[in-house]
Amino acid sequence: MKMRSNILLCLLALTALSCTTPKEDYYGRSSGVTHEGTVLQALQKGEGYSHFAALVEEVGLSDKLSGKDLITVWAPVDSLYPAVEIEAMTPEQKRLMVENHISLTTIYSRNFRKLNTIATLAGKYLTVRQEGNAYSVTGCPVQVSDNIYENGILHEIGGWVIPKLNAQQWWDELPDEYSIIRDSLNSHIQRTFDRDASEIIGVDSTGRVIYDSVWVVKNPYTNSINLADESARFTLFVPSNEVIDSFFVERTRYFNSLGKPFTSEDSLAVYDWLMGATLHRTLLTFMPEEEFVSVKGNEIRTDYFDVADSVTLSNAKVFLMAKTYVPIKVHMSKMTFNPYWIRKEYLNLGRGIGYSGGTYDVITNNINTSSSKCDNNNLTLFLQFSSASANNAYEFDARPYDEELSKTVTQPLLPGSYTLYCRFVKQGDDCRTDVIDLYQVKAGGVLEPLKKLEGILKGYYDNNDSNPKGGLVTEELIVDEGTYAPLRLKAIIPGAFSSGLDRRICIGECTLIPNDNY
C-alpha cells in the first residue's frame, strides 16, 4: 500500500511538471506573472498606460500589439508623459516614437544582463544598463518587469524613449542654412540599376524583359557607407553657408595678396575637399591638436577649425562648424619640367652632335623655349660644356609642357614647401662630371643653395629605368612667401673648363612635388 502511494505521488508530480503552456515553455518557466489577454488589452485596461495606449491606436499599431507575433513592449507611464514634445511631433514622428517602445521578440528580465542593446520596431536600439540589481533602458528605469501575456511581455519603464534621428534622417532634414554642403553632396548621388538583384516579371508588347527593378543608390563621397545604419557609428563635420562663404572670402583675399586669381578650378577644389572631409567613421571627440581622417582620406586637424555646436544622433555625432578650413595643398599639384633645351633640328645642321655653339649666353639665343619638350623624338642634350669661364652656369624656370598648346608654359607656384627631384643627361659615356651646384634664384637674383650634387655618375641618368624620379635634390624647397611666381633654378658646374675633362653632364627633367602644406 505504501509503495502504491509513492507511485501515485510520482505520477502526480510528473503530471504537474508536464502541465505547462507553450508560452511557459518558451519563457523558461520564469518567475514572471502570467496574465490573460494580449499586450494591447493590458495597455488599454491597465492603470497608468492610457497615454501610450491612445498613441498606439492613433498611429495604427493596434494590430501589431494584439496579433500572434511575440513582442516585448516597454510601456511608459502616464505620470511622465512629455505632452508638449509629443504634441509637436508629426504623425511620422509619433509613429516612430511608439515603435521605439516595441521589440519584435520576447525579452525577459533574466536576459537583461546579457544585453547591451535591444532592437526596436523603429529600427533603433535601446541601451541596457545595470546598476546593482536594477536595470534601465536608454536612461529609463525598468520599474515593473515580466508581465507575461498571450502574445508577449510588458515591462513598465519610468520614462518615454523619444528616438533620436539617425545620420541619414538628420541629413535629409538639414535646413537651408546648410544648403551648400547639403546640396553639393546630394548632387553626387548615383542610382544604378542592379540587374542581378532585379527579378524578371514578364515581357512587354515588344518582347523586352520587364524587371521588378532594384536600384542601388551610391555617393562617391560617402564611400558606400549607409548613414541610416543604426548599428554603425559616424561623425560628421558640417559647415553652414555662412561659414563656407567666410572661408571663400579669406582664401580669395589670400590669393589676391599673392597676385593670383581665385579661379573656378580653385573653387571646385575647395568644394571637393569639404565634401570629402564631412564623413568620418566612429564617434570622435573634438579636442585641440587632434587629427581625424575621413572616409575619403581627407584629414581634419582640429587646430584649424572651430565648433559652434554639436548634435548627438542615434548613430552619429555632428559637429556644426563655426570655422572651416581647406588645406592650401588642394590648390597645389605635381609639376614636371625641363631646363632650356636645344631642339634636335638645330643640332642637326650638318655639323653633327659634336658641334660647339659657343658660350651659354650665345647658345640660349638659339633655343626655342616656347616649344621645347624633353622626349627622345624632339630634343637632345643641352650643350653645357663649351664655356671657358670659371663656372659653367645656366638658369631656367619651371616651365611644364602643355600638351594642348604643344609648348612649354610659364607656371607660377604657390608659396609653400616642395620636394625636388632631378634627372641628369650626359653626352657619351666618357664625357661627364659628378659635381653640380644647384640654387634657387630668389628675388633680386639672390641665390639660395639647394644642394651640391655629387657622386651622380651612376644611377641618376635620364635613361635609368630603376630610378624614374631621378635623384633627390631636396626634401624641402621653400618657395618665397608672399609671391605667386615661377620657380627659377640655377645650375653651376664649378671650375674652369678645360678640353678633355669630364664636364658634360647637365640637369634634365625635374619633378616638383608639393609637401604637406596644410
Annotation, overall tally of beta strands: 28
Q: What proportion of the residues form beta strands (DSSP E)?
A: 25-35%
Main sheet summary? 8 strands, mixed
> What would you report as the Rg, rounded to the nearest angstrom?
38 Å
Whole-number mean pLDDT: 79
Which stretches of 5+ consecutive residues score pLDDT under 50?
1-30, 341-388, 427-431, 457-468
Q: Please tell me what the overall shape is.
A: elongated
Summed up, the helix count is 13
Quaternary structure type: single chain
Distance between the termini: 97 Å
The computed structural class is alpha+beta
Q: What share of residues is helical?
A: 10-25%
Short recap of the structure:
The chain is α+β, with helices and mostly antiparallel strands and 518 residues long. It has 13 helices and 28 strands. Helix 3 (39-45) packs across helix 4.
Architecture overview:
It is a single chain. The protein is an alpha+beta fold and 518 residues long. It contains 13 helices and 28 strands. Strand 21 and strand 22 (407-408) form a beta hairpin. Helix 3 crosses helix 4. The strands form 8 sheets. Strands 1, 2, 3, 4, 5, 6, 7 and 8 form an 8-stranded mixed β-sheet that branches. It has a 4-stranded mixed β-sheet with strand order 14-13-18-17. A 4-stranded antiparallel β-sheet has the order 19-28-23-26, with no helix packed on it.
